[in-house]
Specification:
Sufe protein. Chain: A, two-stranded antiparallel ribbon, 2 strands
Length: 145
């Protein structure tokens, strides 16, 4: 299983996504979800569950000490019991993975995801949890910054 560090850059993904039809866009999201590094089952608890998602989604932050920048970076583990939802959380994480907490808190994650037009690509029950995923990541970043 590939680690998240093997994931494509968000800009490259946007470029590719624009040329795909609806079925291929689904496949791309599913592939992104598959590329997430595995999240240990022990971390899939009530405390790490994202509320308001149609599928079960778990997000767990880990702190990377960054001696070069004299600070910390946040690395998120995530999983879902639904392939498309797992791809969505992978996409969300691409916008913030391994960044400093202050950088994450200042990132407009929703704006970064706009080129993917998820609201029109996916059913509303698939996208209803995205704001909650973003809120959880932002709250986590605020706690660490």
């Amino acid at each position: 299983m590939a680690a998240m560090t093997d994931m494509p850059a968000l800009a490259d993904l946007v470029e590719e996504y624009e040329f795909l039809d609806a079925d291929d866009r689904y496949r791309l999201l599913i592939d992104l979800g598959r590329a997430l590094e595995p999240m240990p089952d022990a971390l899939k608890t009530d405390a790490t569950m994202v509320r308001g998602c149609s599928a079960a989604v778990w997000v767990y932050p880990t702190v990377l000490d960054d001696d070069l920048n004299n600070g910390r970076r946040l690395h998120f583990l995530a999983d879902s019991n639904a392939a498309i939802t797992k791809g969505i959380i992978a996409l969300v994480l691409l916008t913030v993975q391994d960044q400093a907490p202050a950088t994450i808190a200042a990132t407009d994650i929703a704006a970064a995801l706009e080129p993917f037009d998820l609201r029109n690509q996916l059913s509303s029950n698939r996208t209803q949890g995205i704001p909650n995923m973003i809120a959880l990541i932002r709250e986590t970043a605020s706690r660490y910054s």
